[in-house]
Amino acid sequence: MFTAWFLCCTFDDAPCSEFMDWELDTSTCNVNGLKQEKQLSASQRRCYSFCRRKSFAAFVASKRDDGQEEGSPCWCCCGQTFKEHSSIHKHTARTHDAEIRQLTQAAYERLLSQLEEEAEMQQPDEREAEPVDFSAWIPETGHISEEQLQKGPGKVLLYYRYCLVEDPHLIRTWQKALCEKLHLTGKVRLATEGINGTVGGTNTATDLYIDAMRSHPLFRMEEEDFKTSDGGAECFKDMKVGVHQEIVPMGMDPDVISYQLAGVHLEPEEFHEEVQALLAEGDSCSDTILLDCRNFYESKIGQFTQCLAPSIRKFSYFPDYVDQNLDLFRDKKVLMYCTGGIRCERGSAYLRSKDVCKEVYQLKGGIHKYLERFPDGFYRGKLFVFDERYSISSNNDVISDCRYCGCPWDQYQLCCTAFCCQLVLSCPACRRDGRTACCPTCQTKGQAPLHREECECTDGRPRIPQDV
Asked: In the prediction, which pLDDT does 178 show?
């Protein structure tokens, strides 16, 4: 069911100018390209069709000339004047199809995001009230003081498990109770395809959490399935546990692109040997691609030597990146990696579904596990993490630089401008001079309200880059 917010704020005649200001692609996007129709569920196709109709109407409305006399509507576009609805509609359909597709995709993503947020907020209270006995999967803490659970050295856990979860809402209730009892913070995503979490707390609390996860018969996890780093509950603002369609948001129906189609898993030692062989061959090696399937701001501060790092803003753009660069992967052996391994599971499955690669491999446990084994290996720079720390490190290399002065710098902070969610690399000297925004546009606007991520950082970046 579409929200009142979406209907009123996005498509009424009055806010059309705001609608046109959304961040748009610079490439053509449609159901058969960006979101292939066969890979969308029936409800997703209905959403997309709805967004296209409304986007078309909004585009036409934005061309209306309000200076004309009332009762004589007129639309101006491409240096022409149209006095009938049918004529402006035909012109828009013939001339501005690519723009309509871009607007449709922006509206579609905005709608899905809003619906997902509302669905998480409106979880039925009845489920939480169900008399379910979780005692077998919640550790006994009577012998442990509250101080041990809340104070002292801590760590952050990163983990995932793909498996069939028949009732993710039931698991959500258990996870909320478990994390509350152990005073953990972080985020846990649940879906019928599994669980994905990153939580922080004291060493005592996180160890108990690992024990509880391992005791649950559904997940069958081992201690090595958890990646750890120094941190604690302070690394997150709160604890969120939600039910979603995917445990990592790729924007593809898990029933169509399943983790079960993933590439071959390589242990860190095996992956290290593959990268070593690739680097030894140098420019003479043309049949292997070392692919970073993370986002551009992650790879900017740390990456494997001689990797291909797509300049994409979020993982849901990865399928479109693959679609627009199929020739790049044709007949190649691909070595994929990401932070903890979860994005490679379905990212490699999507790449394999295109049937163009010779072989597809992925780093088991991701960069986290690789750095545990090879802290001074072929991964150089920081490892980006999705919490208040922004990054962790295992070596002293700095591979990025300050946004303003160009000196070596790799510590992210949020742009100082209200409502801008971009991260900025601004060294201490530049920050002292007041240069704390992600770009000159944000620096000039200061605290003036902005549309989310509307600035030079996004305006000049193709949403789906082509590397062919």
From this structure: 96
- Check if the beta carbon of residue 114 is closer than 8 Å to that of residue 108: no
Strand pairing of 194-202 and 185-191?
A: antiparallel
Whether residue 148 contacts residue 169, with contact meaning beta carbons closer than 8 Å, is answered with: no
Could you give the CA distance from residue 105 to residue 297 in angstroms, rounded to a whole number? 23
Q: What 8-state DSSP symbol labels residue 114?
A: H
The pLDDT value recorded for residue 49 is 75
Q: Is 338 a catalytic residue?
A: yes
Q: Burial letters for 12-39: b for 16+ Cβ neighbours within 10 Å, e otherwise?
A: eeeebeebeebbbbebebbbeebbeeeb
**Are 343 and 249 spatial neighbours (Cβ–Cβ below 8 Å)?**
no
| pLDDT < 70 regions, the chain | 1-46, 66-71, 115-132, 134, 284, 445-454, 459-461, 468
* Digit-coded pLDDT (tens) for 9-55: 343 333 333 233 333 333 333 444 444 444 555 566 667 777 887 88
Give the pLDDT of residue 38.
Answer: 47
User: Which residue's structure tokens are 């078309």?
Assistant: 56
Which member of 29, 338, 416, 457 is catalytic? 338
CA distance 252 to 270: 30
Residue 121 CA to residue 162 CA, distance in Å, equals 24
Structure-block tokens of residue 419: 């409502």
* pTM to 2 decimal places: 0.73
Per-residue pLDDT, 71:
59
Helix (H) or strand (E) holding 392: strand 391-392
Q: Residues 393, 382: contact at Cβ < 8 Å?
A: yes
CB-based contact 179:188 (threshold 8 Å) = yes
Class of residue 66 by CB neighbours under 10 A (exposed 0-12, middle 13-18, buried 19+): exposed
- In the numeric block, which tokens belong to residue 311? 């300049």
